[in-house]
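Service request form, structural biology core

Requester: graduate student, group of Dr. S.
Request type: structure prediction, single chain
Budget code: on file
Notes: please return the result as structure tokens.

Sequence provided:
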Amino acid sequence: VADYYGAFAAPVSISVSVTQPVLTATKIANLEKSMNESAISGNPAESAVIMAGLASYLKGASVTAVDTATRVSLRRSMASTLQSYLSSRKLGTEELQVRLPAEMVRSAAQMDSSEGANELDAEVRESIISSVETLNDDALNTFSDEISTNLVSAVGGVVSSLQNSEDNSGASGQRTALTKRVETSLVKLAKGCLRDMETGEEARAIISSGLEVLTQRLSTASLGGKNYSTSQNTSVQFPNESALLGILNSASTSAASPTEDDGSLGVSVVSIGGAGGLYTEKTDNQERINASDIGGTVVVELQTQEGDTVNVTGLTSNDAFQISLAAPAAASLSPVDDLSIVPTCVFWDETSKSWSDSGLETSTMTASGDGNSVTCKSSHLTMFSVHMRLRVGVNTFGEDDVNEDVFSLGNTVFVASMCIIGAACL
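Core staff response, request fulfilled:
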């Protein structure tokens, strides 16, 4: 505490007792009405404040104070208000066109995952992702730290809901379609962050709600051998410069050259935390993959100055990208038998709509302060994860492995076995 002249006085201890308020149904209804009316009557700032307050209240209030039905109804009302504003907003300034709706979409998706996963039902999740897509495509979106953090937080709420929700409405294919839009929204947001980034500028990380979007623009020389680490216990090791140049020379892009203009490449590493990752449906039925059998998930992309994705495929083991991901909760560092369920590196195959290990090598599994991690070698760039899968060991015998005494007439077990077999054949 500073006195009038700026000198520091003795420390003062202040205790404040705060009681969580309980809003009556009438008060909640009145706030909800004001939130909706403000959004469409030209006062979006007031609507954004009310929405943030209601979201904070839902996050802090116990389920006994606000029942599930009321929570779901309020989330739907928030999503509807947001959609109404996006369709009727007055264009012209980033404040009205992007920043305020970005605050709103974050509020609509804000929740306590331990209690609120079911608040974001299929209808609300669809509305939130639609809003993020609209804002990602907005010409006035500068992808400032504030806007980007709000959008990442909103997508994080949808991811958490998909991972933890008991709401299984809709077919597996519909959930997978929404999950693809989640992935695309995060990748497009990363492209927005890269858009005005200078070559050699310090890496930028947007972290919120269990997600991290890391971006940087570097020259090919600086990118060779570069290692990126995220807060989600994920790292990506790039090949050396000569191998990287070979990759780029053979890469197919819509641009004339992957490194035209200033000779730089944009890097985006989108790390998805939480138990369950993305694309949790099996392709042969509508069952969900056990969350404890899924490790970290990351999407890695290279982009040209124009924002075109560099298609990286067909790398050799020596030139491969090395990607370290959090191991599934069910994984163990103990030795495995010939028939075991082990962590396996996989990628999402857009053609088959399923996880595949083609072109991937599960290298090592190590323990660290942040938990176990699995290192993968990849011949291509895409979305990666680690799943627990069945491994069957195959025994091979060489000449030195055979002991001729085992098959001699002096071995009573061998003789008895042959007698039994002979009798059975007769």
